[in-house]
Structures are given as structure tokens and as C-alpha cells.
Amino acid sequence: MTRNNQIKVAICIPNMIIGGVETVFVNTMNELIKNPELDIHIITHAKVQEPLYVDWFNSHSNIPVFVYFPLANWFEDLAPKCHGILKLVRRITYSLYKRYRRFIWRNKFKNMDILIDYKNGEFYRELSYVNKPKVTWFHSALCYFERDINLLKKIPRYTKIVCLTEDFKKRFNIKYPEYKDKLVHIYNPINIQYIQQLSKQGKSPRGKYFCHVSRLDKGKDIKTLLDAFDLFYNSHKDVKLYIIGDGCHANIHKTYARSLKSSENIIFTGTQYNPYVFMKGALANILSTEFEGLPTVVLESVALEVPCISADCESGPKEIFLNGKAGLLFEIGNSKQLCEHMLNVYSENIDKEDMIKNMKKSISRFTPSVIAQQIYEMIQNLVKENEKKQDISKKY
To answer: Do 127 and 102 meet the contact criterion of CB atoms below 8 Å apart?
Structure first.
């Protein structure tokens, strides 16, 4: 620990792009920095360029920020311009550059008391040289991480692994019982008052509509959402579908949407820094993803007291919805079942008041101050355990 007894904490986040993990990171940081016992430092792989997060970092200039790969943004911007042999040269050069940076900074953070890799073990190479307690957050379902060929290399390198749901913890312990002592369950925080406040800073679209908010990447299963809405459109041509977000698969989804009868009622808005204006006026917010960690957009919909329809995916939605009491679940990829839920919401064939009552019960588990205290207690315990081990080793 430092002289004034603060715990020096390095928190690592690869890049600040618009997404659920980054939103949760900011929510978590806003609470942790209030704790006078913590001396927080932030480590990123690349310079922060997203205006929303640039503003946040500028408003918290007292927090030291270290960029591990200062040229990362330049290399990424170069990628679309490189073809053939230039593509290979760029990839090799970038790989050598990262190895060089890791080598010269391998002892950079040895004065930290604890290191937190906040996103899916993406700093496991950089932190492997630091002999201090290390924690990583797993922000998705177990099936997602098992696609990572480095998963079993990463797990032993961390002192603790934070999972976001009891469902994840159960699946993990069954599959990897030898690592069960490493797993800690901590929910993501949700700032209800902030979300409700932002939802009032603008007007929702006119008319009746459903809303989907996500990064338009692989695994979000936008096709099932579009197919369900096209079925719904057959009997309700007065309703629209707003798809909020952007991503590498955006053009694929837009092309498919144009082939549907309902195309004129499907609106892709791109990235919206305040999606809550759209979400608060929706008939329901819909999540069609194949897997999640703890879906932020579902929590946000619950915070706004708007009905939410979600794929019953691994993991998160069922746990948030109290097994269907606080939200509507459908089978992954089942557009007909999703359409039925949309019809029931539109026709008010659901007990909305009872659902909202259960929503309020569900959301209380995600209070930021409670989550921050759980994280602090974990940090404190790990640092104390490490100090005891060091004292013992000195005696022998």
C-alpha cells in the first residue's frame, strides 16, 4: 500500500468504444473513485478517441491514465488501406511493436497493489510479468469464452475471475471445477436516476414502435428480430422498429431489411449517445442476442419501467427477469415466438403493472454503491492476503 494507506489499483480497459462493457466501466469508475481508500490508475491499449468518453476522461483529469500502445489507433486506421503484401507487413509490424512495448514496460506496474483487467482477460499478456494480485472480469457467457483458444492459458494467470451472473458461476464450476475458488460473482451496476434523467432530455419518436439497442456485431442475431417484426407487420402496419447502434455488420442487416415487406417501417438510427429517449417511448425494448454476460440494455429498459422482450440466452436475461416475472423471454432464433410476444405487448395482453412491480424488485440488486462496496471488499481482501504471503516468505 502507499504511504497514506491508499490501495494502488491499476484498472485496465482495452479501448473505449460505444458498448455495454464501456458503459458499465464508467458506471463502476464513478463509484470507485468516491472511495478515499483507493488510488486508481487507468491503463488502456489505445488512446481514447470516442467523444463521449474523451469528455469523461477530461472531466476526471486527476486519474492517471497510461496508454500501453500509443500507436494502436494509427495501426487500426491503416488496416483498411493495406492489401496484399502491405496487409502482411502491417500485421507483422504491429505484432512486433506490441511485443516491444510489452518488453520495455514489463515492470511498469510493479508498484501497484492490485491490477484489474476489466474486459475478458485482454491484458493477460501485459500483466503476466507483474507478481501482484490480478483480477479479470468476464463480460459474456461461458460459451463465448470457450471460443477463445487462449482461455485455459488466461484463467491460471488471475487470482480471481469476476462473473456477472449466478448462471455463469454455476456453468463455470461444472465445466472447470479445478478453478472454482477463483470465481467471484458481482453484478454490473446500473445508475437508475441518471438513465431516467437522460430519458427526459429529448422527445421520443411519434407513434407506436419497438426498439432495439446494441452494437451491430456478430452474435446479436438481428435477423431474428427483423423476421419477427416482418411477421408482426402483416397485421400492424402502423408500428415501426427503431434499431439503435452501429457496428461491422450494420450494412449486412440494412441490406436484409430492405428485402422485407416491412422495410419502410424499419429505421436504423446509427449510434445515439442518448438512446434512452428512444427506449422510454417504446412499446417494448427487444434483445435478440445469442449470448450475453449481463445485458446492459435489459437493465436499462427495466430502469425505465418499459417492458422488455429478450432471447432466453446464456446468460443474464432470465436472471434479471426473475425467470419471466419481470420480462418476456423467447427461444433463441425463434422469430415466431418473438412476434407473439410483440403482439401480446401491442394488444396489452400482459399484466404490465405486475411486470413493472417485479422489475423494481429486480433492479435493486444492481445499485452502484452496493456493487462498488463489493468490489472494494474484494480488492481489500486480496491485497491483505498478498501482504501476508509476502511476510511469510520473508521469514523463510
So the answer is: no
Q: How many angstroms separate the CA atoms of 288 and 332, rounded?
A: 7
Q: What is the pTM of this model?
A: 0.84
Q: Using an 8 Å Cβ cutoff, are 194 and 326 in contact?
A: no
Residue 262 near residue 233, CB atoms below 8 Å: yes
pLDDT in tens, 3-39: 468 999 999 999 888 777 888 899 899 999 999 999 9
Q: Of all helices (H) and strands (E), which one includes residue 275?
A: none
Distance CA(30)–CA(56), nearest Å, equals 10
The set of residues, in sequence order, having a beta carbon less than 8 Å from that of 73 and lying 6+ positions away, is: 46, 47, 49
Instruction: Cell numbers for 54, please give them.
Output: 474523451
* CA distance linking residue 308 with residue 291, whole number of Å: 16
Residue-wise pLDDT for 32-84, tens only, equals 999 999 999 999 999 998 888 999 999 999 999 999 999 999 999 999 899 99
* Cα 157 off chain centre by: 22
Residue 300 CB contacts under 8 Å (≥ 6 apart), including other chains: 190, 195, 213, 275, 276, 279, 285
**133-188 pLDDT, tens per residue?**
999 999 888 888 888 888 788 899 999 999 999 989 999 999 999 999 999 999 99
How close are the terminal C-alpha atoms of the chain, in Å? 22
* Cell matching residue 200: 427526459
What are the structural domains of the chain?
7-68+105-189+367-395 (3.40.50.2000), 192-365 (3.40.50.2000)
The strand order across the sheet containing 7-13 reads 65-67, 38-44, 7-13, 114-117, 134-138, 160-163, 183-185
